Amino acid sequence: MATAPEPKDCLTQLTDAVGPGAIVTDVEECAFYAQDVYSLGPQPLAVFRPADTDMLARALAAIADSGVAIVPRGGGMSYTSGYVAPEAGALIVDMDGMNRILKVDETDMTVTVEAGCSWHKLYEELHPRGLRTPVWGTLSGIKAHIGGGMSQNGLFWGAANGTIAPSAISMEVVLADGTIVKTGTDFLRPFGPDLTGLFAADAGSFGVKAKITLPLMRDATAFAYGSFAFDTPARITAAMSQVAREGLASECFGFDPFLQAQRMKRDSLTKDAKQLIGMMKSQGGFWKGLKEGAKVVAAGRSFLDEATFSAHLICEGRHQSAVDADMRRVEEIVAEVGGTKAENTIPKVMRANPFPPVNSMVGPDGERWVPVHGVVRHSRALATIDAITALFESRGAEMEQLGVGAGYLVMTVGRAGFLIEPVFYWPDRMEELHRRSLEPDHLAKLKGFPANAESRALVGELRAGVIDIFGEMEGVHFQIGRTYPLAERSDPQAWKLLEAMKRAVDPDGRMNPGALGLG
Fold first, then answer.
1. Rounded alpha-carbon distances, angstroms, from residue 478 to 29, 170, 203, 276, 475
2. Looking at residues 227-232, what average pLDDT do you find?
């Protein structure tokens, strides 16, 4: 039996196939690409930066017999170890160089991009044309890649249409042996069994996504914004669930009092004022925009009581009368459950500037930050929040002693899902990923903290406890990576089928081993 080549030989084969300019071996640079927002990974063999699909396929074919693990990496905004290899010596494939928008077809209403294209870049191309994709990115979209979204799944903008991964029409994927696979057709999914779905939300465990075709739709031209305050979780969940069931809003999200206070502490009125130019453009005319911008300035940062829960909604469409009618119905629902109107600053500013800098990946003073999440049925939303709250209260003394704060974001998903995302802040050292991702002027203002293993360990225990609660509530997850227990919560026969598919596309188990719990 032939033995796998040594790492040095593997690098030689790789360099011979693609040239030295596409390979990074510097120890510190490689270590940077091996970490995500929450975890530090083991030292990789190298980082490979393909320039196009052919180079990607050529490289993987060259090392097909090497035994070296291949780990695809998108924009680096993951926090579930999706691209953190389980062992040292992996080849990390950095897709940042494959970032082209290949074709915008306004006749057939599709767009094809390379997987390393960011959501922000696609928005900048489509928005002036009055176009967008049905689900058009996460809040980290200034850095997050479309290929990463297809691998990890997720949502924010366009959440009324569901989540990111199912929105693809077709993909071009490179398998571990360098084979290029094209799924589906370029205008309709599926054509026969859904092979695009096989590679959707796979955490990169089936192949490296190279190209993605997405459907287009006309962007909205009429908008209505609403913000509302509630005094209990029961009231905010009741209102948001009813809004989702009636399909009234394109985005419907909210904050608990802790997370709301963090947001008010973080965002300054000065920064909001800088965003007003974008708002003016988005409000359908200079004078209307000026009026709306003045409202934001007048509201300042005190328009919401930090002791309340808040919900923020955007209704959109083609006719102002229609979206205004939808917002009036939202207001009726809010009133029926005992909520009250608030100044609608937050949804206005966010919609006008949908992909801000990712400064919120740390706390207001530079605390470390990490979320955990699940999506449950509407009927289980309140019970899930109550269980999570009880968990936090049971560990409250430890959290206070160690400086661990926790709140949660809530958001509706389509008409049937209710997302709950607890978020933790704790005093701990920032890593290189944080320092490179934050704006330099923002980073310079942060207090920062030394390493704090004890607080970090408590956060790990709390995250695990929350994941257990979601399991009890039959919740589902995005960005499964190596964090959420997919195998334990899958039908046994379905899991066997998934394992068989993995063997078919990656018989040696080299493609992102351990992701999804496979391999």
1. 28, 20, 10, 33, 11
2. 95
Q: Which residue has the tokens 């044309």?
A: 129
Residues 42, 70, single domain; the answer is yes
How deeply is 379 buried, as exposed, middle or buried, from its count of CB atoms within 10 A (0-12, 13-18, 19+)? Answer: exposed
Bridge partner list, 376 = 418
143/122 same-domain check: yes
Asked if the structure places residue 513 within a domain, the reply is no
HSE value, Cβ hemisphere, 13 Å, CA-based, for 373: 25
Q: Tell me if the bond preceding 492 is cis, omega within 30° of 0.
A: no
Q: What is the CATH number of the domain that holds 371?
A: 3.30.300
Per-residue pLDDT at 139 = 95
User: Which two tokens mark 140?
Assistant: 């980290």
Distant-in-sequence, close-in-space partners of 214: CB < 8 Å, separation ≥ 6: 110, 111, 112, 113, 133, 146, 167, 168, 169
**pLDDT per residue as tens digits for the range 356-380:** 999 999 999 999 999 999 999 999 9
Q: Is 440 helix (H, G, I), strand (E, B) or coil?
A: helix
Are residues 172 and 248 located together in one domain of the fold? no
Burial class (CB in 10 A: 0-12, 13-18, 19+), 444: exposed
How far from 122 is each of 111, 151, 512, CA to CA, in Å?
Answer: 9, 17, 27
| Angstrom distance (rounded) from CA 139 to CA 357 | 9
Closest CA to 243 of 377, 414, 408, 376: 414
Domain that holds residue 456: 359-472
Question: What mean pLDDT is reported for the chain?
Answer: 92
Could you tell me the pLDDT band of residue 270, with boundaries at 50, 70 and 90?
very low
Give the C-alpha separation, 455 to 427, whole Å. 7
The residue with greater pLDDT, 3 or 7, is 7
Please tell me the distance from the alpha carbon of residue 389 to that of residue 172, in angstroms, as a whole number: 43
Q: Which helix (H) or strand (E) holds 384?
A: helix 378-394
Structure tokens at 467: 């994941």
CATH number at residue 25: 3.30.43.10
Strand 417-426 and strand 368-371: pairing? antiparallel
The answer to whether the CB of 201 falls within 8 A of the CB of 153 is yes
